[in-house]
Structure formats: structure tokens, C-alpha cells
Design a protein that fits this description.
globular; alpha+beta; 24% strand; 7 helices; five-stranded antiparallel β-sheet
């Protein structure tokens, strides 16, 4: 009994001192958080979700400017590129155009998603003044936490839903969205799920189909289907809600991992 009491007292002393013994192992301290990377380049603006980076060039080299087929009035450009995300970035770019004196010059969707079923993105803003180009990039980066809110994924694939009450130039350029009207998209990967999402959305409310993109037409041969539509604000949202409910059930049959929003749902 005396030996047991001594052992308990010794274990308590060692525990309080941060050591260990066989009777009472101490809890290991958590590893220190990795410090965020820093960049002192004047061209660097920031980073965001989806392995996204934003930059700005105050005066594009004249020879490169010509090869990029950029209007000469846009001396400055803002550049945003991402490994994951197309819809979130385009909808965020649309908000940036509304908030700044800039124009979207380029929207390209590389085959990426870091090996997944969908796209990455490259978006370039043009502006006469570098402050406008920089501000466009800043607004876009700040919007991404919101526009990733209805993006869901697991090992089997991904779902994506986007909505705006008033489409602007970026959505018009990317999807042909009517400017000033409510607009939404549904995305499903693998593409088979995207087909059913499109049909579900079309049947759920009175909407105007704008675009349908599949692996061989309208995407960079990515394994997804994108359905874009406009209409009354309530109808667009209703169509998205119906498609989202169906998509979660379908993707859940392929992988039992619970589907959670990448950030916070906003639709």
C-alpha cells in the first residue's frame, strides 16, 4: 500500500513538471502552427481558399501586352489564378467588376482541381489605373469565402451551386448571363450527376436555360456538367435548392463521407 501511494505521489509531481512516467503519461504538446508564407513583391496582392493567388502588374510590357491581345487602354492588369474553383471565382469576379472601375479581360478554366473532376481558373482584370486593378483583385479574393459556401466534395466527386441577384460583366463573359438579371449555376462531377442536377433544376422552377457545358463541349474536358440559367430571383434559388438536395444524395451513394460546405452556405 505504501509503495502504491509513493508511486501515485511521484506520478503527480512528474505530471505537474511536464515529464512522464509509466503510470501517468503526459499529454504531448501540440505542434506549433506553421507560419504563413510572406511575400514582399509589390505585385503580390494576396491568397485565398482554393489555392488562389492574386497579383497585379502596373504596366504590362508592350510586347507581352500585344501578344495577350489586351486593349491598349488597359495598361494595368489584375491577375487571379487558382488550382480549385471556377464558379466561385467567376461569381467573385462579377462582384469585383461591380465594385471597381475595371473590366474582366480573360476567363480561362484550366483542367485542374488538383487532380479532381473539375477546373482551376485564370481571371485577368484590366484597368487604366493600377489602383483599380489591385482593388478588383482584392474584392475578388475577399468574396471567395462566400462563393465557396455552396461547394461540396468528397473522394468521389464534387457539387457546386452559385447564385447572384444581379449578374454583371464577368458572368456575361463566362456564361452569357443576362446582365442585371438573377442568375445561377449547378455543377456536378462526375458529369453523370451534373446531367441529373440540370434536369432537376429545369423542372423545379420556371427558369430560362442559358448554357449547358459537358466534358466535350464548354469545359476543359473536365468530368463535370455545368448548367447555367436565369429568371426570377425566387425561381433561380428554388431551382438551385432542388438540385442541391438531389446532388447530395447522389454523391453520397458513391462515398459515405458526410458532405459539408467548404465554408458557409449562402444560397
Amino acid at each position: 500500500m505504501r509503495d502504491e501511494l509513493v508511486e501515485q505521489l511521484m506520478g503527480e509531481v512528474i505530471r505537474k513538471m511536464g515529464g512522464t512516467n509509466d503510470a501517468a503519461p503526459a499529454t504531448p504538446e501540440a505542434a506549433p502552427a506553421k507560419a504563413p508564407a510572406t511575400c514582399n513583391l509589390t505585385e503580390f496582392v494576396g491568397t485565398a481558399i482554393g489555392n488562389t493567388i492574386g497579383m497585379v502588374i502596373a504596366n504590362v510590357d508592350p510586347a507581352l501586352h500585344e501578344k495577350m491581345n489586351i486593349d491598349k487602354k488597359y495598361r494595368s492588369i489584375g491577375i487571379v489564378g487558382a488550382r480549385t474553383g471556377a464558379g466561385p471565382h467567376i461569381f467573385a469576379a462579377d462582384e469585383a467588376v461591380k465594385a471597381t472601375n475595371s473590366e474582366v479581360l480573360v476567363i480561362e478554366l484550366p483542367r485542374d482541381t488538383e487532380g479532381g473532376a473539375g477546373h482551376g481558373s485564370l481571371i485577368i482584370f484590366g484597368a487604366a489605373d493600377v489602383s483599380d486593378a489591385r482593388r478588383a483583385v482584392e474584392v475578388m479574393l475577399s468574396e471567395l469565402d462566400r462563393t465557396f459556401g455552396d461547394v461540396y466534395g468528397n473522394a468521389a466527386g464534387h457539387l457546386e451551386f452559385q447564385y447572384t441577384a444581379r449578374a454583371s460583366a464577368a458572368l456575361n463573359k463566362a456564361f452569357g448571363a443576362p446582365i442585371g438579371q438573377a442568375f445561377g449555376i449547378t455543377v456536378g462531377g462526375p458529369a453523370a450527376i451534373g446531367v441529373l442536377l440540370a434536369d432537376t433544376a429545369a423542372k423545379a422552377a420556371t427558369i430560362d436555360p442559358i448554357a449547358y457545358s459537358s466534358p466535350a463541349s464548354g469545359t476543359s474536358f473536365s468530368n463535370e456538367v455545368i448548367f447555367a440559367f436565369s429568371g426570377d430571383s425566387g425561381a433561380v434559388r428554388q431551382a438551385i435548392h432542388a438540385a442541391r438536395d438531389v446532388g447530395k444524395q447522389l454523391l453520397g451513394t458513391m462515398d459515405p463521407t458526410p458532405l459539408e460546405s467548404s465554408t458557409t452556405p449562402y444560397i
